[in-house]
């Protein structure tokens, strides 16, 4: 009898064709549904990988306290992985994040420390995490600088996209937060075909979209390598939210705002390729589920 554990069900998420938001003749658009992971987002992959690799190196052991700054999805995923593997989890997050996210973290047993969005938000959370580590209060996994973040996507997300498109993927579009997803997938897909275009999505200068950022230079994730992204396109918050709602109404894909932003850019890229008459297979990441945003009123 094959015995599965919860971690066996992280990854191998569905890749589905967009049927009504986009109906091109030459360009075909697909969405990878990362909300199907056990804790509900793409962050399940790096969360589990960062803990597993740190354990293997002897950096941490069950019973230790882990600390991480998060805007939500990584925190939920880490709280789940910590509960599964026997760690205490302290999460530091801006005070403007949705209550559903906080409740999910608490359900997994995590301690939550809130910091003021107005006083610094995620940058302040990151600084506090490192201060707590220096004071001996736990170990910071540091998703922003930890190569085990992007390696999770190099080892799983990228190969799954290549496999499920039969190696025909021509464009990969992803919102950028820690940049782990786009860094890992870019590495893998470019090794298979240097012709695959990697498109990053960030908020325009006036938008605040949960999970994706336009980082100040001093806080740019250390794992980010600009050369691995062929194009970076901006999306307005209103466009991301409207596209998110259209995804639910027309495709039955219930997702968060950053996924709406990525889909908006994917639709733009699809229209570009269609206008050129190019055969294209475009894949975008739907990074989480919409149920963790209901209290914010976006739906």
From TrEMBL:
Pfam families named in the record: PALP
Cofactor(s), names only, from the UniProt record: pyridoxal 5'-phosphate
Name of this protein: Cysteine synthase
Xref: NCBIfam families: cysKM (TIGR01136), cysM (TIGR01138), PRK11761.1 (NF008735)
UniProt pathway annotation: Amino-acid biosynthesis; L-cysteine biosynthesis; L-cysteine from L-serine: step 2/2
Keyword Disulfide bond: no
Entry binding sites for pyridoxal 5'-phosphate: 73, 177-181, 258
Catalytic activities: O-acetyl-L-serine + hydrogen sulfide = L-cysteine + acetate
SUPFAM superfamilies in the record: Tryptophan synthase beta subunit-like PLP-dependent enzymes (SSF53686)
GO MF annotation terms: cysteine synthase activity
């Amino acid at each position: 009898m094959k015995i599965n554990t919860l971690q066996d069900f992280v990854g191998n998420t569905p890749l589905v064709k967009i049927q009504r938001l986009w109906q091109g003749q030459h360009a075909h658009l697909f969405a990878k549904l990362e909300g199907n992971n056990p804790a509900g987002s793409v962050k399940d992959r790096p969360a589990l990988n960062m803990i597993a690799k740190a354990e293997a190196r002897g950096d941490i052991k069950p019973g230790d306290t882990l600390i991480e700054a998060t805007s939500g999805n990584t925190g939920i995923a880490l709280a789940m992985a910590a509960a599964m593997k026997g760690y205490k989890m302290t999460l530091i997050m801006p005070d403007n994040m949705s209550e559903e996210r906080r409740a999910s973290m608490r359900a997994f047993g995590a301690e939550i420390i809130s910091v003021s969005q107005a006083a610094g938000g995620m940058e302040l959370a990151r600084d506090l995490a490192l201060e707590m580590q220096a004071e001996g209060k736990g170990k910071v996994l540091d998703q922003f600088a930890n190569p085990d973040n992007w390696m999770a996507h190099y080892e799983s997300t990228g190969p799954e996209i290549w496999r499920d498109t039969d190696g025909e993927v021509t464009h990969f579009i992803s919102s950028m937060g820690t940049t782990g997803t786009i860094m890992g997938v870019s590495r893998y897909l470019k090794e298979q075909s240097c012709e695959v275009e990697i498109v990053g999505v960030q908020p325009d200068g006036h938008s605040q979209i949960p999970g994706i950022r336009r980082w100040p230079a001093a806080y740019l994730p250390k794992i980010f390598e600009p050369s691995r992204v062929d194009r970076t396109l901006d999306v307005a918050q209103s466009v991301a939210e409207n596209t998110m709602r259209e995804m639910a109404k027309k495709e039955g894909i219930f997702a968060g705002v950053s996924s709406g932003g990525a889909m908006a850019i994917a639709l733009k890229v699809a229209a570009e390729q269609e206008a050129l008459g190019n055969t294209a297979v475009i894949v975008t990441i739907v990074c989480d589920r919409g149920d963790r945003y209901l209290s914010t009123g976006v739906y």
